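From the pipeline queue, job 12 of 40. The input is one protein chain; the requested action is below.

Action: predict structure.
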Amino acid sequence: MSHNQWSALNFILSENISFGINEQLFENKVIQAFGELGWKEYLGNIEVRPTLHIGSVNRIEPDLLFKSDKQKNLFVIEVKRPDIDLNLDYQKQLFSYMRQLKLDYGILIGKEIQVFYDGNLYKSDNPLMIDKISFGKRNVKGEKFVQLFNKSSFNFENLDKFTQKKLDQIDRRQQKIKLKEIILSEEYKRNMLKILKENLFNDYDIETIENVFEELEVEIKDKTKKSASEIKHKLLISKNSITSKVLNNDKRKVDGLKIGAYVQKTFRRFTDKNLLTSKEIVNLRSEDYSKQVFGANYKILRHISEGTKDYSGRSRYYTKELFVGDYYLTAQWNESHWDKFLLWENKVTGKN
């Protein structure tokens, strides 16, 4: 049951979405999707942008307010276009609705689904994200989501159990970090040395033990972190490998062009002839798709609103022109991308 409902939700909110859909139309899709879970606007389960007065002057208008059959407020949904990232500003907008309406649960829906909690199980300045669900046909997290938010089985007891489990996971992660810091501290190291020496007192005299430990070093290492020398060695191997590939393939050209120039030429052609479907353009904006299909470390296309620079401030996209509308094309191409790019090009043009 939950698998079929998630499939329906995924189809309505992801697979069947036209590229560049505006927020109003996408909001209607969200209403349709939750209709698959039993929530009906005509029965009063969903209020669309209700005007709620705060005091004598202020008012708020959440996108979708979900209610029980007895008209009790249950949770709120804020909707954003599926082609933009759900950033902190949008989350804060949802948070304000949750706080004003005194709701434990709120959902942000756009390119993914984010679920937030703001109840007595967890006290904080801001609601806590307890789940983030990407769209996709086979998705365990998505199936759990439709179980929890199905109208026929909706209840706060199940939601709170799910939330408590998430809180326990977060707490264990925090405890793990704290314990690791303690074990790696100098004080803990001194205590360990003291225990090691005490264990030897029955068999050896103190002077001998002290002399031996002066010649030894006891160290506790974090196996998840590489040492500087290990990182340097790995980078050297990687650099040599890349250099070898370039030397072996530096003469490869198609239509007399190297990989970067050929990719730009191809995307110009696809843009001029409108060969890329809306769905494919959405795919090209996905990091997972770009990695899987092209072996790329960056999204193939990035909307102009996202800019061209990575987290370190380096530009990773061609900045002098836009492709298929308002998109930058990644400039991170090398010889290793030839085969995958040509295979993808042939699929787009129907040559294989």
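Job complete. The two ends are 37 Å apart (CA to CA).
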